[in-house]
User: Fold these one by one.
Assistant:
Number 1:
Amino acid sequence: MSERVVPEGSRQRRRPTKQGAMLSEQLIVDTALRLVAQHGAEALSVRRLGAALGADPSALYRYFRNTDALVLALADELIGRAQEGWTATGDWQTDLRSMGLRVHSCYLAYPQAAVLAAHRTTGRPHETRAVERILGILRSGGFPDPLAVRIYHAFVDQALAFAAQDAAAKALPPAARDGDEEVWQSVYSRLSADTHPNIAATYPLLAADMRDSGYPFALELMLVAVAALRPRDTP
């Protein structure tokens, strides 16, 4: 998509697409997520989206100024899907844990889109709601505002960094992904205790643990550290 500006009042399409659906921002985002999952980032073109939607490609400019605006919408959609059904329990550790695990799980469900979107700041409704919720968890949990902001920053960066890394690994072609996993058997299992005593001593545990994401344990480590920073006089 190239940069174009369409007046706000002209953005709504009044005729259905060839598939009989009314074109909307949500329909475009849902279709873009599906195409990215199937074909990767190259699917985000006016031509391919228009063909998938059964709409004139130029109609997309009524909703998104360019491809980057669409990427931000995809990023915000992932954040929104991660929050679907989430409710606060009132326990700050439980609520932070569930929020982090939801974000990580949602991004892994859409690995191709996560690679594009995990590092973006959207300023859109789902993201602002997530920021509000996480800060609310921390402030209601007794953390003073300066500390709440720093914890928020570390918490979100940790969740998104692991989500991006794990999504990138999941988005690899199967042969490359299998090759990476095989390295633990073909290389690490054969390292000598004379040259690599720590790897040799822990290899079975190491190989088993590296099959899964390190995020759940990293999150628990963060929660323990955050609890240690919580003011002692907080009820």
Number 2:
Amino acid sequence: MKVYRNKELGEFLIERAWEVTEEWYKSLDKSESFGVYTSTNTEDVKLLKTQNYEFHRRFFQMFIEEEAKFKEGLEEWLTYLANDAQHLATPVHFIAREFFSVRNQYLKLIKEFVSLNKGKYSEEMIELWYQKILDTMDDVVTWFMEEHHKASTMRLKGQQEMINELSSPVISLNNNMGLLPLVGDIDTARAKLILENTLEQCSERRLNHLLIDLSGVVMIDTMVAHQIFQLIDALSLIGVKTTLSGIRPEIAQTAVQLGLSFDKVSITSTLSNAISASAIKSQQLL
């Protein structure tokens, strides 16, 4: 393996790192509607420049440090950038574009260094420097894309879990009665969360009657219908009576086709009817 490291070149590049950052920031297309590069907030701009400078500083260690140590430091910084909230909110093709812009700045600096040291280094060594810049920046883009994808996926998963939790809240109507209004499409994963969250919330609030309103649910598949009835059975086991309201014809048809029993659950056509019927029963018990 040919040795490309050169301390004189590395120090020259590091000394120019802040200048590279300033030139890069001036060249940014700030007309885009959103993303890390468009903020005019003083603190945001300062942070962006600092991040850019630190990337240069770590990248230029390529010509000074052993390769393994250099890569460790650079990958650590790329992982940080990929998980940065502002970079996660920026389209990844915008970020890739800026990496390639920086790559061109580096190539110009190599050319300048060679010009200042005419005849000192062989053409083979100079070509090796250029190629190393190109190859390493290709690796950088790949590393960053992978980390950005991981971070984005984790973020979306967390957001989806939060949405699912918020989309199946048990609302307390009085001391012992609650309401679970279900809205939107329900897939198998969401149905599982609804079952777990509902049981937990009913137990925590010590409810003995739960109204489940399905009027906002357009369609559910056979697996989801089965899980809703599993929820009713599970609620029964912890002493919670269930009333279903707003069942659409297609949902009723699915339940019948599955042979699901309605013996353990009362049914009303609308939520208002369910609340009225429950209120009457409560009055009768007083």
Number 3:
Amino acid sequence: MNLVGKDALPVSVAMPSVAQKANGAVRAERVIAAETAIAMSYRGSSHAVMMATPADFEDFAVGFSLTEGIIASAGEITGIEVLTFEAGIELQISLTDEPGDAFVRRRRSMAGPVGCGLCGLESLDAAMRSVPAVAETDFRIPAVDVHRAVEGLAAHQPLFAETRAVHGAGFFDPARGVVMVREDVGRHNALDKLIGAMARKGETAGNGAVVVTSRLSVEMVQKAAIFGAPVLIAISAPTALAIETAEKAGMTLVAIARHDGFSVFTRPERIG
């Protein structure tokens, strides 16, 4: 896979502000997270546009393509070209013949334009797609490791420490700790970037847990299930549909994971 035109873009910028203190207003600079429009294009057609952090383009392209069902493996992407415009960034993603032809057929069947969120979906049925069942595994995670995962994710978020304005997604292996983390202003983007980074390195999810800083919407569960994660941990709360989807996928859903405890909503037997 060749990445063409990758430029180093700032992920944060110092901007002036007026801080209101007890003894009056103080002019100061704050470090603010960068945000830009990133378009995913296949076969010359723009498929979806996300507002995202301008970094980890290859991870983003691979992860998004996997979780949206455009490809089945990272090897089906043959190249990624990064084009920078005044309005944002376009990732032109080249596919091998089979997924490329399938993408063209999918585009032809679409009822209307696409956008961000549930990207490129042409119907309500597609939005409520079923997800693959997580493979049965002997993986178990002690309760203490749930806290280790959350603490380890926080320790590997330099952009959040600088800006306090981005989400993080990481993969926790009890034997290795947090092995990989990606950050983004969008929670879905952070997870896609993590999944893409893992796929590019040949890492699988069967013997670990995905841990995220955001609330758990159904899209987060869908993406983690497609990745094959048996356990998904979040510091915030899930939606009812996220819980239902995790139950159907056979995934253990741990949420509201804070220093004083956490809640397990599905498949509690995986938590030691």
Number 4:
Amino acid sequence: MSIAHGKNKSKPNLSVSGKRRQLLQAGLSLAAVALSPLLAHAAQREFRIGHQKGLLSLLKKRGTLEKRLAPLGVTIKWIEFSAGPVQLEALNVGSIDFGDVGEAPPIFAQANGTPIVYVAATVPRPAVEGILVRGDSAIKTVAELKGKKIALNKGSNVHYFLVKLLEKSGLNYGDVTPVWLSPADARAAFEKGVIDAWAIWEPFLAAAEQTLSARILADATGVVKNRAYYFSSKDYALKNADVLSIAIDELNKIDVWGNANRNELSAELAAVWGIPKPVVDVLVKRSSFGTEPISKSILAEQQVIADTFFDLKLIPKKIDVREAGPASLS
């Protein structure tokens, strides 16, 4: 380099390739600015939770799930249902991503082609479902239900309970006449004496027992385990395992808290259900608490239910419950 060139204070001329590089960098910067809102929008996920009045209602009230999912860009939409089968219909048409349900509804859903996957299960809770008769009923044993009309929600947890209870008492499912009614309609029919018995779960069980002088003919103890299940769709579970894991963790926290604080739990549930706390005290006292992951043994329990329903021609085809198990078990 000459001394004259070294003292030249003017900027050197950019080569053609250097100009192109500058223009490219500027273009990329502008593109990043333009795309950033779109990328932020793409990162957002929605978690649509179907629920019945219960522990999920308490989770909604606490707002802890929203706080944990917010950093992941997940927003929550809560949708309330009256029973499990309706939730699974919503899952089938893509209206929800998660929900809670009893033992039987997932069997019907899988048999009908719903893309369900089991996410978690509660511990067994046999004392929170039962068969009710009126206080003045002449029916004293399950065997005396032969030829009687029994109200129940078709495809619900009590559907399987009724089948196994009759079997244990020496009766066939065809020995009784099921009357398909929602809990509200069944209560009205029960009160008017239109039906002979009512297969129902909590809190309707305790409410009828306490306010209608109804008598529990039998509960599920020694008959079925009566777990509840948390479910999702296969597609959602595959893409949002982190969201589902956090949701189950938060639900288990409420289970643990509720087990240790039953009086406070009764007060909160009484407000959710709109029924007197003394009624809720009864059902909380006979409840069991705990949430656990889906295991092969739990799926085997569900397979027994599925096989029973197929034998009774309650579902259109034989199913393999393992196909609805989490990917970790496959």
